[in-house]
Amino acid sequence: MKQAILLIILGAAIGGGAVWMAKRGEAAKPAAAEPAAAAPDEAKTTITHDTNGCVVIGMSDEMQGDAGIVVANPAAAQFSPEIKGFGRVLDPSPLSALMTELASDLAAYAASSNELARLKTLAPTGNASPRALQAAEAAALRDQLAAQSVRDRLVLAWGKAVAARNDLPAFILALAVQDVALVRVDLLAGEPLKSPPTGARIVTLSADSADAELLGTAPGVDPQIQGRGFLFLIKPNALRLLPGQGVTGYLKQPGEPLAGVIVPREAVVRTEGKGWIYVLNAGGESLTRKEIPLDRPTETGWFVTTGVSASDHVVVTGAQILLSEELKASIKAD
């Protein structure tokens, strides 16, 4: 009897274990894969135009961050009224040659005049003939006229502001070793000029600039430009300007300063033959491309009086990326 009961208990235990193992095996099976949720539509860049015809790029804040777009407010600034002119760095070689010729003629005149003075002293005592005295007078006059001729050519070619300098030899040496630079700037024909400039900003083709001191009016008119010309001195020659180098000159005029902002150079993109910036619109989800004039370059950027203010958020990093997005969109549209 006991054996039968033991067998019944053992069978129940084995059966229960089998059921438990079966249930655990079912639980261990991976659940059937759920159907993948539909992926949301990818964020896209949109290209539209505002009522003024300006390009507007729609781009979410996340996309702007991924693209590395950085905005900043342009710095407020003031500039003196200016008139734009065109010029070049003058070669001091002709000036140096004239100075050497003048020194030679002055030395010759000094010798001949001394000889004339000596003969005038000897003539009353009969130790100098009248003929020798006349020859000495002619030689002294010749040398004097030669020196005066060089002085006249110096004034005619370089103007009184240069020719009348007391330190002319030292000035020529400084020009020769390029410690200073002499620049001539000519205004366009018919350009109004109410008063002489007080100075100038000289800008190179690479947009580097330096302030220049006014020396005076140029001695002649450029045969091509046919406008008024002025001579300016850049001291020291920090831009390392070379003779013959073309420059743009912004002649400073007296009057109330102009108010504007300085747009950083890296914020400007060039297309369609013009300069443009991107400004972040209210809401931060779109940017408008705006044209700015590039007629007042500075050391750090461009001075702008219209179209942008110090409160605008201008793209200073990534402007070229935005332009590329425009170009890609136009290619797809085509």
Please, could you describe this protein's structure?
- The chain folds into 3 domains: 46-79 and 258-333, conserved putative lor/sdh protein from methanococcus maripaludis s2 fold; 83-91 and 179-252, Efflux pump adaptor protein, beta barrel domain (Elongation Factor Tu (Ef-tu), domain 3, Beta Barrel); 93-163, Helix Hairpins (Orthogonal Bundle), CATH 1.10.287.
- 36% of the residues lie in helices and 27% in strands.
- Residues 1-10 and 18-42 have low confidence and may be disordered.
- It is built from 7 helices and 16 strands.
- The protein is an alpha+beta fold and 334 residues long.
- The protein is rod-shaped and about 110 Å long.
Give a nutshell description of this structure.
This protein has 334 residues and is of the alpha+beta class. It is built from seven helices and 16 strands. It has a six-stranded antiparallel barrel. It has a five-stranded antiparallel β-sheet with strand order 1-2-14-13-12, covered by helices on one side. A three-stranded antiparallel β-sheet has the order 4-11-15, with no helix packed on it.
Number of strands: 16
* Low-confidence residue ranges: 1-10, 18-42
Estimated structural class = alpha+beta
What strand order characterises the main sheet? 5-6-9-8-7-10
Beta-sheet strand percentage? 25-35%
Instruction: Output the helix-strand order.
Output: HEEHEEEHHHHEEEEEEEEEEEH
